[in-house]
């Protein structure tokens, strides 16, 4: 069996056994296929599956060096190496070959960027005004409901768009919203009354039939709303309201977490609300909070940055 066929088997295994999302499968396919393409050039011929077990650490380092010379960032190279490692773990589990050399590699050092949250004032402005910008009242109500779900519940855009009509959080129900996140993991998220009211108003005005199992949020022609259209709606809101360039659907999720943390919420509680598998992912928001503290300190403290804001002492 050649290595390309092994890649197909690997992706099928990820989808069936690990329940990987389409985005994850696409990333793994791209990274591992790129590595196998490098090997074909590096070794002079497409490798067979058995040959993968004979690779040396120098072969992997040559691949990483080529990517670095192409200007690929440490973060992207680290992601690619993680995908290749997963591929080789699958090979070892499915009858070989095992490749000890890949375990000798160090992952390129990365420093994940701190999430960019909106200020409280900008988040409130967007939440208050999102329902006033579209010409058609039902689309304005839809946009308002979505913005409030993203900011009020910390949802990913894909999670909000996946809500079905029968799952819609409406007034009069105290039940939390059951959200299906990455890897098909489910979590329960509390929903504020203002969010429930906005969803109810959208349903009242929506001119399209909303069957119980059908997607709740619809585009102008009645089809399921997609992520591209949601981003376009946020772009229009940014322009109309004078919001910063990073005011995106995901920035509202970041803002949800950051503003909860600033208000004293427990980090593990925020982890549960966001659906993060690892606490280390949630801890990125502490960097946002610390950055804001330092910004305020540098602006307000008399001795920040070598500046002296206090009047000089009177001469003796």
Quick synopsis:
With 316 residues, this protein is mainly alpha-helical.
CATH topology of the largest domain: hpI Integrase, Chain A
Number of strands: 2
The biggest beta sheet is recorded as: 2 strands, antiparallel
Please report the first level of CATH classification, the CATH class of the largest domain.
Mainly Alpha
CATH superfamily of the largest domain: Intergrase catalytic core
Task: Describe the overall structure.
There is one protein chain. The protein is mostly helical and 316 residues long. The protein folds into 2 domains: 3-104, Orthogonal Bundle (DNA polymerase, domain 1), CATH 1.10.150; 120-251, Intergrase catalytic core (hpI Integrase, Chain A, Orthogonal Bundle), CATH 1.10.443.10. It has helices at residues 3-17, 22-43, 57-69, 74-93, 120-129, 137-153, 157-161, 193-205, 227-241, 249-262, 267-274, 279-282, 284-300; strands at 177-180, 186-189. Helix 6 (137-153) crosses helix 10 (249-262). The longest helix has 22 residues, at 22-43. The radius of gyration is 25 Å and the shape is elongated. The termini are far apart.
Index terms:
316 residues; mainly alpha; DNA polymerase, domain 1; 2 domains; disordered C terminus
Topology, pairings included?
Elements: H1 3-17, H2 22-43, H3 57-69, H4 74-93, H5 120-129, H6 137-153, H7 157-161, E1 177-180, E2 186-189, H8 193-205, H9 227-241, H10 249-262, H11 267-274, H12 279-282, H13 284-300
Antiparallel strand pairs: 1-2
Helix pairs in contact: 1-2, 2-4, 5-6, 6-8, 6-10, 10-13
